[in-house]
Amino acid sequence: MAPHLRGLEPDPDRGMEIDQKSPGELDPAVPRGEFVRSVIGTVAGLAAAVLVYLVMPGDLEHNARLTAAVAVLLGIWWMTECIPIPATALVPLIVFPVLGEDVSVNDVGAEYGNNIIFLFMGGFLIAIAMQRWNLHRRIALLTVRAMGTRSTRVVAGFMIATAFLSMWVSNTATAVMMLPIGVSVLMLASELGGKGGAGGKDRAGGNGGAGGNDDEDAIPRMDSSSDPRSEQVKQAVIRSNFGTALMLGIAYAASVGSLATIIGTPPNTLLAGYLEGEHDIVLGFGRWMLVGLPLAVVMLVITWFLLTKVLFRPEIERIPGGRALFDDELRRLGPTSSGERRVLAVFVAAAVAWVAVPLVWEDPPISDAGIALTAGLLLFLLPAGTERGVRLLTWDAALGLPWGVLLLFGGGLALSAQFSGSGLTGWIGEQASALDALPTVALVLVAAAGVLFLTELTSNTATAATFLPVAGGVALGLDLDPMFLAVPVALAATCAFMLPVATPPNAIAYGSGYVTIGQMIRGGIWLNLIGLIAITAVTMTLLVWVFGLTG
């Protein structure tokens, strides 16, 4: 080493002699497999981007080739998660102004402030306020309690409550809240101890992985004093058809319910932003519900029937003490607080405004995003009516906003804008002209199937962000309204039920330890197929009627 650099060599023992290490020095080593995957993903993304730029036709504009390269880079980095997904979403903000021609930071940065992003932000502020005052929990308990104590009705009650909440609250937060309540119900079912109820054959054969042991000892006994996180309880739930149906029902309902509204799931929000920004098509909160709500209801009913009547028929008919459990949980919440009532009033007012304003005014004086932000601001302004100076929402609570998802929206919309602005959308449409012989229904089915099965392995939001502009370009090339392919892509990104990585609710259900991959695959593979049929049917009927599509 050169004399002037002596003493600067790495010290393997650094930190051993100091009292306090920096947070970075305290980080443990990344697992080898994850490290290798991140390196491979990083290199593969960069190499594929360069290759795509070089192989694109030479007569194509530089910006179009650059956009194609960036799309491939984003797709690979999002799928491998070699760096955090929100960080990848910043790539367009760097690459397009630096390497593009006549593209400024302001042009690209404007997409990160798209009004659809503020719609999602306002909706999330309402959801955070509901969680802050336990309004979401009270709604869930009242809904489930109203369904009675029959096992199949209990599953239905949990699914209805979960689906309704996920229309407005993050489906991730909804699943996190509902799963522990479901486990509390299961712990009251004495048949989980292996006595009474259906026979062991039914239990083992109907659970996709419970095994063939009919011995009573194969199913541990548990009661209300058991630790819900214990391995005993988890194994009891896994080996019970009722437990499996309830856990999967909650996870699947969280995804299905989110289809009903624009703010329910990120792919829907991305769809609204893409269509408005690139095709001047305004979905509108109420109009979208005319499409999304019927789809969600049909999927919810089919999911319930499949889980409770076909795949995992509950061993018991009634839940002993079920109503008492819900009454006890409601007593713990106490009487409805003034904060709950005021948050409920703001929530109802926002929901009514989203639906009614477009019906009253042909040219509404306020957008859906404006309504959402008005509701959010009111939550910061209105006193809770409890202690002096307490408001319905605080900034500390609002910091729970999914800032990473908002960045991902911005990156996806910036990419979509470059697809259109660079001419890449038109070029994709020209290449897709060979598909003109296929009927529209076949194109819809293929687009939905491709995204659905890809989403089983990757982030559903990232998949939607990558493929929405591609689907729009193909549709334009075939003289179709872009909604014919863009809507199935967005819906399919949320209708993946087979693997834990497919959607956040799936990951939460599996990560809780109450569901096995085998059980999830067994239920999910059928729901994937049913979802494809339902999405195709809704696209070719309700979507056409509500939005007057032609072509």
Concise overview:
By secondary structure, the protein is mostly helical. It has helices at 23-26, 32-55, 62-80, 85-88, 91-99, 105-109, 115-132, 135-146, 151-166, 171-186, 200-205, 231-238, 241-257, 266-279, 285-311, 322-333, 338-360, 368-381, 395-398, 403-421, 424-431, 440-455, 460-477, 483-494, 504-511, 517-540, 542-547.
In the predicted model, the low-confidence regions spanning at least 5 consecutive residues are 190-222
Count of helix runs: 27
Give the tally of β-strands: 0
Question: What is the average of the pLDDT values?
Answer: 81
Give the overall shape. Answer: globular
C-alpha Rg, in Å? Answer: 25 Å
Helix coverage percent: 55-70%
Between the first and last Cα atoms, what is the distance in angstroms? 72 Å
Please describe the biggest sheet, giving its number of strands, its sense, and whether it closes into a barrel: none
Q: What share of residues are in beta strands? A: under 5%
Order of helices and strands: HHHHHHHHHHHHHHHHHHHHHHHHHHH
Please state the structural category.
mainly alpha
Q: What report would you give on this structure?
A:
- The longest helix has 27 residues, at 285-311.
- It contains 27 helices and no strands.
- Among the domains are: 36-104, no CATH class; 136-335, no CATH class.
- Helix 8 (135-146) runs antiparallel to helix 9 (151-166), helix 10 (171-186) packs antiparallel against helix 13 and helix 24 runs antiparallel to helix 26.
- With 551 residues, it is mainly α.
- The termini are far apart.
